[in-house]
Amino acid sequence: MKRTLLIELKNKIGDEVRIRGIVETIRDQGKIIFFIIKDRSASVQAVCWIGNGEELFNTAKKVTTESIVDVTGIVKEAKQVSAGYELEIKNLVVDSLAQTPLPIVIEEEHSDNLTALNKRLDYRWIDLRSKKNHLMFEVATTMTKALRDYCLENEFTEIQAPRIISAASEGGANVFEVKYFDRKAYLAQSPQFHKQMAMAAGFERVFNVGPVFRAEKSFTTRHLTEYTSFDVEMSYIDSFKDVCEFEESMIKHMLKEVKEKYGETIKDVFGVDVVVPEGKFPFLTVEEAKKKLKDAGIPSKDDGDFSPEEERAIGEIMQKETGSEFVFMIDYPHRQRAFYHMKNSEHPTLALGYDLFWKGVEITTGAQREHRYEELKKNAIERNISEDSLEDYFDYFKYGCPPHGGFAIGTERLLMKLLEVDSVLEATYLPNTPNRLGKLLGS
Fold this sequence. Notes:
443 residues; alpha+beta; CATH 2.40.50.140; BirA Bifunctional Protein, domain 2; 2 domains; eight-stranded mixed beta sheet; five-stranded mixed β-barrel; nucleotide-binding; aspartate-tRNA ligase activity; ATP-binding; RNA binding; EC 6.1.1.12
């Protein structure tokens, strides 16, 4: 008999069906055993009576929670059950018996305690069985698909940039060095150089989705050493604000798609309203932001940068003033941005770029790039970056390259803010951090 998904059972009252899934809970009342069985679509109460046969009942007695079962039975009306039906078991096969006790408790409400989180991550494959985690990654799938679809609808070409590269794309800092046969290579910090290569190749509009790597010993709730980056690059822009405008439209499209498919469920499970912005995202200069922080009595260094606490405060201030969860932060000092960001011609100490904040957390860095060969080399020299190490990159701009710009979004951080979970580790399938590689903790 072909398997039936649990969500289909409401239309199968009186029918014999075969279901397969995980045993979520067991309630043994002596002569009757109640199971809650779940699959990817739903869950159902399944009942085994002693009168259904001694062999069947003995098999049911041995089942443990989290075991994998293959069940055949009759779908029957059951007014005492919230679903209005249950499954009366006629045959039960245990595909895989779960050992007891489980090393962790599968919880729908997670503690924000770091020790508890690390324990759950050690047994991530069990932790991921919770309904909350399943929903999280279903939402992530819709989120990324919506971003990708929006690019495709706007005539972007998807490229796959290499992840092993010969030169560090962000100027040499915080890179993982790897041995590549008889030479040094690096894990890509971003596909930036190869997006710009596509601009020089005349592709005009490209996007890339894939892993990037940062050798940063950051132990915060929003940093990873490996994460998925959604990168966009577009040619023939007049200003970096053209890039802002595209990203704003893309984000709104994504939120609309997520809200339509999962809005009510996200509200029920995570307690979060998915809000699709109606107005334009406001712009705020770094100088203006520093003044707002000062006026609010929040100390801030005059260094053109913001601490996580300052970012949160700016988010709260701007939401009160404008009603927007989003804000484009602009006019950063050029010295603090990547060397390939274009300088503001009227204020050369400033970069033509931005960060996009959402709910007080930076989710994007974007900019107009420097496409002029000589100016790009000057920028690198000012940073004491070796020309030889970037020779191949500079070559992209020798033979004509259109004005262009782009941005990158870390999808795990985007998901973290969308669902308001406490840590990006929660929003990552199997997170890598300075102390964690795969599922293993280091010393």
